[in-house]
Amino acid sequence: MILLFVEPLSSLFFVLYIVCGATDILDGSIARKTKNTSAIGAIFDSVADFIFIMIMLFIMIPIIDMFFWIQLWLISISMIKAISLLTGFIKYYSLAFLHTYMNKITGVLLFAFPLLYYWFGISIVAALLCSFASIAAVEEMVINLTSNKLSYNIKSIFLK
C-alpha cells in the first residue's frame, strides 16, 4: 500500500517495489522450507498477489500511454481469468488460483513490468507479458474445466 504514496518510477518507488517482491518470495520460501504451507496460506498468498497487481495497475495505468490493442488484450485475459475463477468456484467452492509454471512466469514478468517498461517501453513489454499471461490464463481455465479435484499446486496441463 505504501507504493500508492510514492512517486511512480522514482528511485524510492523501485526500492520499495523490490522490497515488496522480495518479501513475497521470501515468505513463500520460508513456508515451504519449514513445512508450514496450507491451502488457506496459498489462497491468501494469491489474494495478496492479486491486490498487489491491482495497486500496481492503479499506479501505472495513468502514466502509461497504452495502445488500444493492449487494452483489448488485457480485457480478454481478464475475462478468461474471471471465467476460470468462476468455474473453479462453482466446481470446488473455492478460489481456484492455481500455481502453474505459466502463472509463476507471468507473475515474475508482472513483477518485472515497471523495470521492463522503464527500459523498453510499452509495446515490447506488453506483447511479452500479454503473451505469457494469455497462455497462463487459458491453461488455468483448461485445468479448472477438466480436473475432477482442485489442486492449487498443479504445475501444468502437460505434467499431470
UniProtKB/TrEMBL annotation:
Name of the protein in its database record: CDP-diacylglycerol--glycerol-3-phosphate 3-phosphatidyltransferase
Segments traversing the membrane: 12-30, 42-64, 70-93, 105-138
This enzyme's EC code(s): 2.7.8.5
Pfam families listed in its UniProt record: CDP-OH_P_transf
Lineage: Bacteria, Bacillati, Bacillota, Tissierellia, Sedimentibacter
Keywords noted in UniProt: Membrane, Transferase, Transmembrane, Transmembrane helix
Protein family per UniProt: Belongs to the CDP-alcohol phosphatidyltransferase class-I family.
GO molecular function terms noted in the UniProt entry: CDP-diacylglycerol-glycerol-3-phosphate 3-phosphatidyltransferase activity
This protein's record includes keyword Ligase: no
